[in-house]
From TrEMBL:
InterPro entries: DUF4142, Ferritin-like. Residues 1-20 form the signal peptide. It comes from the Bacteria. Coiled coil: none annotated. This is DUF4142 domain-containing protein. Keywords: Signal. It comes from Actinoplanes awajinensis subsp. mycoplanecinus. Pfam families: DUF4142 (PF13628).
Length: 178
């Protein structure tokens, strides 16, 4: 399942040529890795808040309901830092979930209750793996200390979530043979 943690990969070609007319042209735009990180992290947090809340209500397992509630709460806290940092760096964030996030929300809403816990575990594992890659990319490529601080603060939270997911997957593998 593809959700919000895909890394933005649009790069504008640099301007070339030194003609006098080019001096009046706007400077070439490059993808700002910090802005891309903040925008992608924000969409990921919007996804986790919505998906976690759905899981807290819909999951059949109390373990999954607790994970969903925890992921939603943690993502709300993380997103506050993302929004504050974006505002200080003058990075505009979409106020609403994008179409990819909305597709994930629709999937969770339409998944039958019997299949929900497994869909939650597999999709969350994928999303958290992508989140780690996004964070590492920001820590490697980011220029702004404030954005890097957000990434540094998010990494242990995402790692704890991944560990909890692995524990839940082991639990379900032990209770659901075959």
């Amino acid at each position: 399942m593809v959700i919000a943690f895909g890394v933005v990969a649009a790069l504008a070609a640099p301007a070339t040529g030194a003609a006098a007319d080019d001096r009046m042209a706007p400077p070439a735009r490059r993808l700002d890795p910090d802005a891309a990180f903040l925008r992608t992290a924000h969409q990921g947090n919007l996804a986790q808040i919505a998906l976690g809340r759905i899981a807290a209500r819909k999951a059949t397992s109390p373990m999954i309901r607790r994970l969903g509630a925890r992921f939603a709460a943690d993502s709300a806290r993380l997103d506050a830092a993302v929004r504050d940092t974006a505002a200080s760096l003058r990075v505009t964030l979409d106020p609403e979930a994008n179409s990819t996030v909305q597709q994930g929300i629709a999937l969770y809403r339409t998944t039958g209750q019997n299949d929900f816990d497994q869909v939650f575990l597999s999709s969350q594992a994928t999303m958290h793996d992508r989140a780690v890659r996004l964070i590492r990319s920001e820590l490697t490529d980011g220029d702004e200390a404030a954005a890097r601080q957000v990434a540094t603060g998010a990494l242990p939270v995402v790692r704890r979530h991944r560990a909890a997911l692995k524990n839940a997957q082991k639990h379900f593998a032990g209770t659901n043979p075959g």
